[in-house]
Amino acid sequence: MSYPYQIKNIEQYHRDYTRSIDDPSEFWSSVAEHFTWKKKWDEVLNWNFKEPKIEWFKGAKLNITENCLDRHLEKLGDTPALIWEPNDPDEHHRILTYKKLYEKVCQFSHVLKNNGVKKGDRVCIYMGMIPELAIAVLACARVGAIHSVVFGGFSAQSIADRLYDAQAEFIVTCDGAYRGQKDIPLKSVIDDALIGNRIVKKVIVTTRTRTPVSMIKGRDVWWEDEIKKVETLGLTDFPAEEMDAEDPLFILYTSGSTGKPKGVVHSCAGYMLFTTYTFVNVFQYKQGDIHFCTADIGWITGHSYILYGPLSAGATTLMFEGVPTWPDAGRFWNIIDKFKVNILYTAPTAIRSLMGFGLGPVHGHDLSSLKVLGTVGEPINEEAWHWYDEHIGKKKCPIVDTWWQTETGGILISNLAGITPSKPSYATLPLPGVHPILVDENGKEVEGNNVSGNLCIKSPWPSTIRTTYDDHERCRTNYFATYPELYFTGDGALRDENGFYRITGRVDDVLNVSGHRIGTAEVENAINMHANVVESAVVGYPHDIKGQGIYAFVIYQGSHAQNTHGTAEMIRKDIHQTVTRIIGAIAKPDKIQFVSGLPKTRSGKIMRRILRKIAEGETENLGDTSTLLDPGVVEEIKNGKL
Ligand code: WT7
């Protein structure tokens, strides 16, 4: 495949950028020409940020899987679409060519249909990183069902909440998943999530670990049995459902500063266009390159840059089941050597954790196939950036620092590999079609360079969040109401003398722990579920490897932790257990400090600013504490800091 919209030099970047801002409809329709449509659009763009209403390519008909699969069959049928590397390096890897992946997706589309899945139905997918996960996602898209992938690290309670919110009637899962030394019994977590659930009709279970599972008659079916039925009938094709450009493609739950996670909704055409466009341009993908994105498909990075973007571009995408440190900390380098990977896309937290093992695990692996390196998920510190550059890229691979969010669907700010300049810890310049601005607390635009502010986007790009599932008002208040007529990202940023953006981190109550997004309110709610906890306050603090760690201040029963229920250490473990049950192990606080009170204003609001400073190790300049109800509590908290 060739990419007529691939940017070839910096002059073209500036030209395309200007064109895209001056006339977005002209720009994006010229990109859209290079996709497969069942029917072309009536109107390219119709929008207002007030409601918000965002419609791209209204009236067009398509199916994203025809773009990811069917259109490649003729020329790339025998080219690897998906390379799968198992958790255990001694187990054989799998390669699915475009033809093979097409057949598998079609077969599983029949399975979905045979089990009652129709266009618009919500299908929850809870699986490990195996090819069947990719197949399930694409098959949902093919039949027009809305997939909602839930990361394998979330607890039964989290799944139950998401199933309920999405009113999902179907689940696709596995018996278990391998992650490093661990076997995670996914089906048994699903069984717990389904206690009391009256909505789910069918659970399709594939075999991976052959962990014993309970299969309930009438509800649970085996993936393999269902496929057999389809095979017996000799069905290898499945006509792709005709979708409207604006029909929802998927829901992906993500944390915010308040309440339970919200279901971010992306729609078919705009998401397809923008993920493909950004994949081809940011990584400068060339036909035949092997692209290795280390994210889990349970997060947006996996959706956009393991599956949809690369496959729509006819790329070869590598999917890895395991973890970077097992059986040793050289696993990524081993995979790069084994498959001659050309593009590596990973998270700063992974780089920092691997840095900690020294250069030993890097040596002995041939990394010369690498051409482009990428990072995503959190700000990258300069030390990690230079280590990545020197020891992995051997100073010959451009590093793209890609800033984006679940809500943005694809990369909004990033350098383009080898085309536009990089600068350590800077995401640099916006992609064509993206109009970032900085505003002060009052929403007034901060103009010029060498300035900082809250990062907003002025107009829609094709994969802008469309709504939050079943609650459009929540979408409006979260993203479009803080500053009128702007999409607010929740991030702070600065713009240097060249107009390059540096993302400085969240300015709301959202934490970024190892690249995972966690709301402080969510963790507090989980901690408060513990019977003896009176109140808690959670803030982030700088953590060498995770980027941010979770610091919890907890009022436990009557003021202190040394009581009849055991030592402070025991109680901390109980709290961990509670959080693991309510959210998942990823949300366990790194530090729990027992306190007798929390710094509150007279109106009862917790002053997190003060707690944040204490957690960060600041003791002197805590700012104005005169409005506190009981300033004495601050001294106690400071003295008890962990
Ligand atoms: C938040 C979004 C986008 C995929 C993974 C995370 C932070 C993301 C960068 C970057 C600095 C970054 C932001 C953003 N973030 N990429 N390159 N530099 N910060 O998706 O879970 O939706 O989180 O991650 O704070 O708002 P997410």
Q: Secondary-structure blueprint of this entry?
A:
Blueprint: H1 10-22, H2 24-32, E1 43-48, E2 53-58, E3 61-62, H3 64-68, H4 73-76, E4 80-85, E5 94-97, H5 98-114, E6 122-126, H6 131-143, E7 146-149, H7 156-166, E8 170-174, E9 177-179, E10 182-184, H8 186-193, E11 202-206, E12 220-222, H9 223-232, E13 243-244, E14 248-254, E15 262-267, H10 268-282, E16 290-293, H11 300-312, E17 316-320, H12 331-339, E18 343-346, H13 348-355, E19 372-376, H14 382-392, E20 399-402, E21 436-439, E22 451-457, E23 467-468, H15 472-480, E24 487-495, E25 501-506, E26 510-513, E27 516-519, H16 520-528, E28 533-543, E29 547-556, H17 568-582, E30 591-594, H18 608-615, H19 632-639
Parallel strand pairs: 4-17, 6-7, 6-8, 8-11, 11-12, 16-17, 16-18, 18-19, 19-20, 29-30
Antiparallel strand pairs: 1-2, 3-13, 4-5, 9-10, 14-15, 15-23, 21-22, 22-24, 24-25, 26-27, 28-29
This protein binds 5'-O-[(S)-butoxy(hydroxy)phosphoryl]adenosine (WT7).
